[in-house]
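call fold(seq) -> tokens
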Amino acid sequence: MTQHPAQPADADPVPPVDPVQWKIVVDATDPHTQADFWAGALGYAVEDNSALVEQLLGNGVIPPEITVEHHGRRAFRDLIAVRHPADPYEENSGTGLGRRVLFQRVPEKKSGKNRLHLDLHFGPERRDAEVSRLEGLGATVLYRVNEPSGQWVTMADPEGNEFCVQ
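ret:
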């Protein structure tokens, strides 16, 4: 019997789990601006859910008030995602089936330090150029770290969410 690597030898075996589809969800006051920033930062694609939105509008399932125009097409007003461009997605809805970040509208602004953040690994030879590029997209440098354990730049996205560039 194969033992789960994180279990003590005398523990009951952990049943195997099929890989789980997941996405990171980020609260935002302006989800579409956040999606545009992170699509640019990560080289991701903003999901195009317009076919689904139009179908739901056409069938009277949703009211027009919960939609907006984003990049010339209908989108949900309160949420939008970005996805890795090489990952699969559902043709009829535009929803990604792989690496995704979903931005959802919340009424309150960010407060306090993030409990979870992204590290963007560009490598030391590209770090400064990428920091400048990200500043051009709307990020700000919070501080630079140069320690024996490594070097990185901690930045904030347009709504103040921290992330690191390594």
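The mean pLDDT is 92.
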